[in-house]
Each structure stands twice: as structure tokens, then as C-alpha cells.
Specification:
Layout (H helix, E strand, L loop, with lengths): L13 H54 L13 H17 L13 H4 E9 L4 E6 L6 E8 L16 E2 L10 E2 L1 E8 L3 E5 L13 E4 H8 L8 E3 L4 E3 L8 E2 L14 E3 L8 H10 L3 H5 L4 E3 L5 E7 L6 H6 L4 E11 L5 E17 L8 E6 L3 E2 L2 E3 L10 E2 L2 E2 L2
Parallel strand pairs: 8-15, 18-20
Antiparallel strand pairs: 1-2, 1-3, 3-6, 4-5, 6-21, 7-13, 7-19, 8-12, 9-10, 11-17, 12-14, 14-16, 15-16, 16-17
Helix pairs in contact: 1-2
């Protein structure tokens, strides 16, 4: 038997030797390209991962900063603009620091350079939103996260905001990548309330209507100042605090609409006293708003709510249970119909804090006393509307 070794080179054929050498050279070149591409892919993946982490940290920081705005808004802010600014920046820095990014356990922001506050305003003439930096009360915060500076170091001397080190790019002369991301969050003026059918959320609405005339008088400086909400004690005390109060108990004044004030049916038109007590204590739920298709709005046309003139002593205990709490109440411009056939034309909702309640005894001594308060809630529907001194607001949302 004759065996031929086909792998043995034919040295008598120079072209065969040249072809094999060319293949080896080509293979080496392709291998270099493949390794270079793989290295490039690793660095691109590292940059992409870091950018995602930076975006998450930046978004969370912006939302945390905007969470501090509520106490600085409204007719009776409990924090000054300076205090809100401090709290907002501290919250943004703290939340950013709780997020890892780009190989660092903590994401760094310099609140002096990387956080700015202002107001997110709707411009009706131009039909657009505008970012107005420095305007108060603050409703807008912008946060920037940098990995392109190298000006901040931790206690171990590691750069917290320096460029991102790369793995393989130094081979081609690039040792790092400069990255930065920006996010902004705001609380927006509301034009209604919405709860989806499957949601367990509640809207803190007090189902008692106040006439807009009395509210506007309060804004103009007409009212009493007998109570204060003491934040340290978390309770209402009998002491003036510079914030005027209004009594929303029905009045017999001829200057008010007939059948003025009373409870409104935010839910079944046949709301019982039990329904009202539940809503006062627990808020408006999805079943209540289902009667309105899941939401009530007052931006396009006045909202009409069925109701009952007067306030029953049957809800006194429920009202006393929520003294000190902040609620939204509907303001009405007119009311028609008697008794439980009354229809209230609601122009908007405003925030109030319940200060004192008395619904028994001498009719002239009965009262449901409230004072203006900042109000924001996750069920508030954002609207294309200007910010008023008594606007209600959404909870923070990312706008970019």
C-alpha cells in the first residue's frame, strides 16, 4: 500500500509557498482587527453602562430635589425660598450619592455648580412651557452629573467627577472618556384629579364647597387669625400664626349665592353621610371618580357637582379626626337648586388645612375653620395653566 502525505509542501512549486505565506499574513491581520474590534466593543459597552447609571442617578436626584418644593408653595408656605433651596439641593446630593456609577460606589454632584432651581411656567400667549431660573416659588430643579472634570476627590484621593477610565482605548491614545448627563424635574399646576379604575390611590379632597367670593376675600386680607399648626407638635394650637382663616360653614349672608356652601357629591349623586365620613377620613377613591369616568377637571369648562346645601352635624366626628391635615376643597361660583338637588358650578380646587370644627350647639357658633395650605398629590392632573398663588400641584415629574 502506498501512502501519500498531502500536507508535505511541494518545494519544487514556489507559488504554493507564497500562497501559504499570504494566508498567514492575512490571518494575523484579521486577528488583530478582531481583537481591536472586541476591545473597542468592551469600552463602548463600559461607556454605555456608565451613562445609564449616571442617568438613573441624575433622574433620581432631580426627582428628590423637586420633592422639597411643596412646603414653599401656596398662600401659606411653611418654608422660605432659601430653606427650600437648601433642602432641595441637599436631597439631590444625598440621592445621587446613594447611586453607584462608572465603577464608583457613589455618584457625586457639586450642589453649587450642578444644581439650579427655578420655575416651570406655562406661557399661554406662546402656548409653551418655559424654564425661568431663579423664579420663586420654586417648582423646577435641574441636576447635572459629571464625569469630565476631576475637581472632586473622596477621602482616599479618588476622583469622584473625573473622566471615565477605559480598558483598551489607551492603545490608540485615548485613556478615558468625558461624560455628563442632565435631568430636570418639576411640580406642575393641576387642573383636576384622576384615579385609574385598578388603582388603590386616594385623592385628599374634602367634599365641602366654598364660594369663590369668600376665598378671594381671604386672599385680599379679610379673615381671622386664631389658630396655628405647630409642626413640632404636629397639631393645631390656639395661637395666631399670621395666616388668615376662613369659616366654610354655610352662611346666611345675602352677598353669597342662594343655598350657599354645603357638601358635594364626588361620587354617587346619592352620597350618604357614611360616604361623606369615609371621604373625609380616607379621601376620594377610584370608585368615587368612576362616576365621572375616572377623573374630574375644571380647566376647559366649570365642573358641575351635585350636592346638598348645609353641613350635617353627622360628619363632625370625621372632620375632627382630620384636624391639622391638608385637603383640597372645591370653590364654586354659583349654586342652583334647593336642598339635596343643589348643583354647584366649581371653578377650581385649592389647598386648605383644617384648623377647628364645631357643628353642634348655637348655630351662630358653628364653624369649620380652615386656612390656606400648600397642596400637591399624585392624583392631581397636570394642566397647561399658569401658576397662581393658590394653585394645587402634581407630585414631581421628570420633564427632561
Amino acid at each position: 500500500m502506498r501512502i501519500t502525505n498531502r500536507s508535505t509542501l511541494d518545494h519544487s512549486n514556489p507559488s504554493a509557498i507564497d500562497r501559504e505565506g499570504s494566508i498567514l499574513t492575512l490571518s494575523a491581520g484579521v486577528l488583530v482587527m478582531v481583537l481591536a474590534f472586541a476591545s473597542f466593543t468592551v469600552d463602548i459597552g463600559w461607556i454605555t453602562l456608565t451613562l445609564g447609571q449616571m442617568h438613573n442617578a441624575c433622574d433620581a436626584a432631580a426627582l428628590a430635589g423637586a420633592t422639597e418644593f411643596g412646603p414653599g408653595t401656596g398662600l401659606a408656605p411653611t418654608l422660605t425660598a432659601s430653606e427650600v433651596q437648601t433642602h432641595s439641593k441637599d436631597a439631590a446630593r444625598s440621592i445621587a450619592a446613594a447611586n453607584a456609577s462608572g465603577g464608583l460606589d457613589s455618584t457625586y454632584i457639586d450642589v453649587a455648580q450642578d444644581v439650579r432651581l427655578g420655575q416651570y411656567q406655562w406661557l399661554p400667549d406662546e402656548q409653551r412651557w418655559a424654564e425661568v431660573w431663579g423664579a420663586t416659588p420654586y417648582t423646577l430643579v435641574e441636576v447635572a452629573v459629571h464625569r469630565d472634570r476631576g475637581s472632586a476627590h473622596d477621602i482616599n484621593g479618588q476622583m469622584m467627577d473625573g473622566p471615565l477610565p477605559l480598558f483598551f482605548a489607551p492603545v490608540i491614545g485615548h485613556s478615558d472618556a468625558g461624560l455628563n448627563v442632565v435631568a430636570a424635574a418639576a411640580i406642575l399646576p393641576g387642573v383636576g384629579f384622576r384615579i385609574s379604575s385598578e388603582s388603590s390611590s386616594r385623592s385628599d379632597i374634602l367634599p365641602i364647597a366654598l364660594d369663590e367670593t369668600s376665598w378671594n376675600s381671604l386672599l385680599a386680607g379679610v379673615g381671622d387669625d386664631d389658630y396655628e399648626f405647630n409642626t413640632g407638635l404636629d397639631k393645631v394650637v390656639n395661637s395666631p400664626d399670621g395666616i388668615l382663616e376662613v369659616n366654610i360653614y354655610p352662611s346666611g349672608s345675602s352677598s353669597l349665592p342662594p343655598g350657599n356652601r354645603g357638601t358635594v357629591d364626588i361620587g354617587s349623586p346619592g352620597n350618604s353621610t357614611a360616604d361623606l365620613k369615609r371621604q373625609i377620613r380616607e379621601g376620594i377613591n377610584a370608585d368615587d371618580l368612576a362616576w365621572f369616568g375616572g377623573e374630574i377637571r375644571f380647566d376647559d369648562v366649570p365642573l358641575e357637582l351635585n350636592g346638598d346645601t348645609g353641613i350635617s352635624a353627622g360628619i363632625e366626628a370625621a372632620l375632627k379626626d382630620v384636624i391639622g391635615e391638608v385637603k383640597a376643597i372645591p370653590l364654586f361660583t354659583s349654586v342652583s337648586g334647593p336642598g339635596n338637588n343643589a348643583t354647584y358650578e366649581v371653578s377650581r380646587f385649592v389647598g386648605v388645612r383644617i384648623m377647628a370644627v364645631k357643628l353642634t350647639g348655637n348655630p351662630s357658633k358653628r364653624h369649620v375653620t380652615v386656612q390656606p395650605a400648600s397642596f400637591s398629590d399624585s392624583t392631581v392632573v397636570k394642566g397647561q395653566t399658569e401658576i397662581r398663588s393658590d394653585s394645587i400641584f402634581t407630585t414631581p415629574v421628570l420633564i427632561r
